[in-house]
Amino acid sequence: MSNSVGPRLRLLRNSLQARSISTSEPFGLPTGSLTVMSLIAANPGSSQVQLAEWAGITGPGLVGIIDDLEQRGLVKRERSPTDRRKNLLVLTDEGELKMETLFGEVSEIEAPIRNELGPQDFQRFMEMVDRAVAALDRQKS
Amino acid sequence: MSNSVGPRLRLLRNSLQARSISTSEPFGLPTGSLTVMSLIAANPGSSQVQLAEWAGITGPGLVGIIDDLEQRGLVKRERSPTDRRKNLLVLTDEGELKMETLFGEVSEIEAPIRNELGPQDFQRFMEMVDRAVAALDRQKS
DNA sequence: TATTGTTATACTCTATAACTATA
DNA sequence: TATAGTTATAGAGTATAACAATA
Q: B5-109: which CATH architecture?
């Protein structure tokens, strides 16, 4: 079609989300939930501002996601003993299990893409997206 | 981070849109406007259902975009003489000019990505997105 | 005074259902 | 009856401003 990535990106994201995903829709969780869960798993005890920064979500946006996850018993908010303004976030055991399930679901939804590109180009594709994001972020600062 | 494209895609789209783009934000036009304009340019006299299909936009969504473009004198709706239910859409001369300007703006906004990947990989990247979309669409039907 | 998390709010994008006018 | 365009409506996602608690 045209020579820019914007329109393509919308088509791809629409298709994925129509398949009920960007991250974790299949279980009725808000978009970004799985991203946040995996960040917590990799960095237990993170604060919400840290997570928001990493996930590319605004503060208020993250509050809603954490509310949802906590209500389902997948994540726990613990007040930091050293700085009582902060929440230290951790996954519950149930959260760890659910996260694995969600990754499976997402992987299945994205299977057509993986099959189309092949495992090697699929990996390259994701690396390219990461590099594109990094390049834009570098520009911003 | 994780092994799926969904979260990455959100980061990339957010970054682009923060730079005031998905397609044509810089002039206050709704998202998808430039996509629609380029489709009309390539297929003058298209109907709205055709355009919605091609652009991955819903019928009602397209109405708003066309309303906006028509109000600015960039696009004209003409009643089809053979089937008076249909609108035949065409770009005005001013629309053609504006489209070129918008392409320039978008290209500038996406320049960091092009520079990061290099022209060849940038092209490959866009092809991969297209293939991914096609693969998902194939699955759907 | 600055920061963390929160609430309130608004705007955009997307989706669905129902209406009209044509066929 | 089916289709093209439209209107009305609702639901996500994202963003900003303002507030309370803490530093």
A: Orthogonal Bundle (1.10)
